[in-house]
Amino acid sequence: MRRAYSVETVRAAEAALMQRLPEGALMQRAAAGLAAACGDLLRRKGRVYGSRVLLLVGSGDNGGDALYAGARLARRGAGVRALLLAPDRAHPGGLAALLAAGGQVVDGPDGLGVLDLVVDGITGIGGRGGLREDATELVHTVTRDRTPVISVDLPSGVEADTGEVHGEAVRADATVTFGTYKPGLLIDPAAEHAGALRLVDIGLGPELPEPPDLEALQYADVAALLPVPGAESDKYRRGVVGVVAGSERYPGAAVLAVAGALRGGAGAVRYVGPGADAVIARFPEALVHAGPPSKAGRVQAWVVGPGLGDGRGAEAAVADVLAADVPVLVDADGLRLLDAGTVRTRTAPTVLTPHAGEAAALLGTAREEVESGRLTAVRELAARYRATVLLKGSTTLIAEARDTPVRVNPTGTPWLATAGSGDVLSGLTGSLLAAGLAPRDAASVGAYLHGLAARHGSDGAPVSAQDVADGIPAAWRDVRAG
């Protein structure tokens, strides 16, 4: 599992570790890992010896990491030059090491020629706001030939704690981070600037507290959560999920939500709504009912909202489902029709799955604010509605009302930006709720499988929501195989 911590926590852990180490040892560990990553990239382009490397060096320890790493590269025969953005505040030990190794300091970008690598050591995890205008112009100048960029700890100009980007920021091909991940490396829009991530172990682990601020599940974590039927399983042990979805205008939403539930391993699906004929035509194993949901029969979780529309009875159906004493997932039109007070006072779990526009409506804010501050938005939604919230988007986030780490899904893909994909996710996650997974786990596993399924469905080609649903079994097999 990838774990991320706030800047304050990282600083405290570093301070505790440095008390037990010789002076400068922590920076040398970081510089060694950074130099190794730079060397790997340069070898893929050709070789380290004779390569041309430019260090963009800010003040403080981040610039020191870059300078010490540059010294190591210079001793391996690379031509390393440093451009100091704050010459009077450059790290003295790092600068001395670079010069002693044969590196050079340059006054500006003119006359640098063709570069093989740019190392971004302008600002570190303590930086706030975007790059200053002079730094922005410098970055644009030295990367205009698409020279590869490696950022030190975090791309300069992004917010480490939130993933927000206020102004201009470096777009790195790779980021080498030290000790632990920072939230901004895993959350868009900042994550888009980070490129490939490489974590360097500097011995910080024992100093980091539990729980982390953010975590991202990986194959082994998801495999451990997957509900696998046993020899004595029946449809109720596997989980029966109820789906209230679709309308005369959107009958396909019903089909896709049911598809997600069945592909997600539900023992049975009870469908309630006007799309019964379309559902039965596609999935004869589905159990259909005219409604209301409370009369449809026994279920262990409900999914309500996809394609429900504004037709007569839609609001009543949402209220009927929320009155049930089982986990409920609310999506799409259901989010617009729900009563906030009812959600807050439910004793059974509630999962809300908005996209940015729906989240903005629930919060009474602008969509742009949600998209630029995704971590803040998902935490606020979870607290305000006392629910588990899965905020869909370029990076899907899952938060709970209580004090648990926010989870970020690492398998998202732009192929999921297709009509009906969210309906599949709702059914899939609902099936996991019905199987007995805790809401946070069901949402996390659902998002993870959903992203993998899109990759299987697309295989590099355009993907439809039905392709995503059909890709779920292959995603499930991939996870179990590791």
Describe the protein's topology.
Blueprint: E1 2-4, H1 7-18, H2 25-45, E2 52-57, H3 60-75, E3 79-84, H4 92-100, E4 104-106, E5 117-121, H5 133-142, E6 149-152, E7 174-178, H6 190-194, E8 196-200, E9 214-216, H7 219-225, H8 235-238, E10 240-244, H9 251-263, E11 268-272, H10 276-282, E12 287-289, E13 301-304, H11 314-322, E14 328-330, H12 333-337, H13 340-345, E15 350-352, H14 356-363, H15 367-372, H16 374-385, E16 388-391, E17 397-399, E18 406-408, H17 421-434, H18 439-458, H19 465-481
Parallel strand pairs: 2-3, 2-5, 3-4, 5-6, 6-7, 7-8, 9-18, 10-11, 10-13, 11-12, 13-14, 14-15, 15-16
Antiparallel strand pairs: 1-9, 16-17, 17-18
Helix pairs in contact: 2-3, 3-4, 7-19, 9-10, 9-17, 9-19, 14-16, 17-18, 17-19, 18-19
Please report the distance between the alpha carbons of the first and last residues.
Answer: 14 Å
Evaluate the radius of gyration. 26 Å
Number of strands: 18
Strand arrangement within the widest β-sheet reads 1-9-18-17-16-15-14-13-10-11-12
Q: Segments where pLDDT lies below 50 for 5+ residues?
A: none
Global shape: elongated
**Broad structural category:** alpha/beta
Helix content: 40-55%
Proportion in β-strands: 15-25%
The average pLDDT value, as a whole number, equals 94
Query: Largest sheet, described in full?
Result: 11 strands, mixed
> Treating each run of at least 4 consecutive H or I residues as one helix, how many helices?
19
